[in-house]
Design goal:
- The protein is of the alpha/beta class.
- Helix content is 37%, strand content 14%.
- α13 links the parallel β12 and β13.
- It is globular.
- The protein starts with a strand and ends with a helix.
Length: 413
């Protein structure tokens, strides 16, 4: 993959450099004293979502939600904060939806006073964490095997059409509350914009839609993933296959827990993260790099990545083009995939965006904002990159306190 040079002249390391660092560490570590005693791995780096929640002293519940097309989604609940009694009555519900190639662990991978899910639970909310189909925690189906291409024939279209309605309706049934707050990051906002603009009944269940680093178009994205746009669909499938894209591997786990947990490699590991998301090194807790990288990537489908490449190339907010008129007709009852119309969404919406975001570029955000018909709040944070919205050390001050304030002001009971 090589390296990139930023506008400031910085060299940005790619994954091969992390591999090289790992090899050198294994070869030379004993000579220079880089052994297990020098490492400082956070225990959460080797935990699953339930274990992380429990580790910090919070209650949790996990459920399987089955979609209409047979996918089984793993979702998690933090019903109350630490030290809160279960008998304190009904609490307002908040649902958190992660972004691309990510998982529900995004919302709990920082310390409790810096993780949105834990902060909401301690503030008195009933917190639910979703997982999109195909990621680490949602890789089951009633009939299809994840070993089959048929299982992976989905993109954000299906996440919006099936995953969100199934999950939100499940939460409503379980809690007895007809309406809830929705917080999405990146692709978590994309599928919400699709679902809430095309499914009015589902939209009525949302009190406020909180959009962190929202993405509907990626015309101006500067992410390395944009390189997919120069490749034909056939070449992408030759390179990546037609099933899963970027699952979490043994190598990822090794890099996270044996390399990035060492201060010596903090810069190279964080720079890899920044290459994808945008630079903001002062706002990242370097001591938790092993946790961040051990929980990601969580995987998605190659088809979903093709959908994002389609969006980057066209600049349109549009359903997936299945590649021929017959397939499009079968899925959409028209020859070409339909455009999604954000202006049809009436849900009250609050938006936060970042000036250093390489994925949700400020120019794409500028095109989105006028389309939101019920925009109740907007904040631009100049130093924010794409992951600061859930990893940033100052996220509680920059985002979460206002997010919670909006919840209480608009729905005090």
């Amino acid at each position: 993959m090589g390296t990139e040079t930023s506008g400031c002249g910085k060299r940005r390391p790619q994954m091969w450099q992390l591999l090289a660092a790992a090899c050198w560490m294994l070869l030379l570590g004993p000579i220079y004293g880089y052994n297990e005693k020098d490492s400082n791995t956070n225990p959460e780096a080797n935990m699953n979502i339930s274990q992380i929640i429990s580790y910090w002293g919070y209650p949790y519940e996990n459920y399987d939600v089955v979609t209409k097309d047979g996918y089984v989604l793993g979702i998690y609940r933090i019903p109350h904060g630490r030290g809160c009694s279960k008998t304190t009555g009904q609490k307002p519900v908040v649902y958190l939806q992660h972004g691309l190639i990510a998982s529900a662990s995004n919302w709990i991978c920082n310390l409790p006073n810096n993780s949105l899910a834990f902060l909401l639970a301690d503030t008195g909310y009933d917190v639910w964490l979703g997982n999109s189909r195909g990621n680490t925690w949602s890789r089951k189906h009633l009939q299809l095997s994840p070993q089959s291409p048929e299982y992976w024939a989905f993109s954000m279209d299906e996440m919006a059409k099936y995953d969100l309605p199934a999950t939100i309706n499940f939460i409503v049934e379980k809690t007895g509350q007809e309406r809830l707050f929705y917080v999405g990051h990146s692709q978590g906002t994309t599928i919400a914009f699709i679902a809430f603009s095309t499914n009015p009944e589902l939209a009525k269940r949302i009190k406020i839609f909180f959009a962190l680093a929202p993405v509907i178009t990626v015309k101006y994205t500067r992410s390395p993933l944009k390189s997919l746009t120069v490749l034909s669909r056939k070449v992408v499938k030759v390179l990546f296959g037609n099933k899963m894209f970027y699952p979490h591997s043994f190598f990822d786990q090794f890099i996270a827990t044996k390399v990035c947990n060492r201060k010596l490699f903090h810069q190279i590991c964080s720079n890899f993260l920044f290459t994808l998301s945008g630079f903001d090194p002062k706002n990242l807790n370097m001591s938790r790099l092993d946790v961040y990288l051990a929980q990601a990537p969580a995987g998605t489908s190659v088809q979903n990545m093709l959908h994002w490449a389609q969006a980057a190339k066209s600049g349109q907010f549009q359903a997936f083009d299945w590649g021929n008129a017959d397939q499009n007709m079968m899925h959409f009852y028209q020859l070409t995939p339909p455009l999604y119309n954000v202006t049809k969404m009436e849900v009250p919406t609050a938006v936060w965006s970042g000036g250093q975001d390489r994925i949700a570029d400020p120019r794409d955000i500028a095109n989105l904002l006028p389309k939101i018909s019920n925009l109740i709040y907007y904040k631009w944070i100049p130093h924010y990159n794409h992951v600061d919205f859930y990893l940033g050390q100052d996220a509680p001050q920059e985002i979460y306190q206002d997010l919670i304030k909006l919840m209480k002001e608009c729905f005090p009971n």
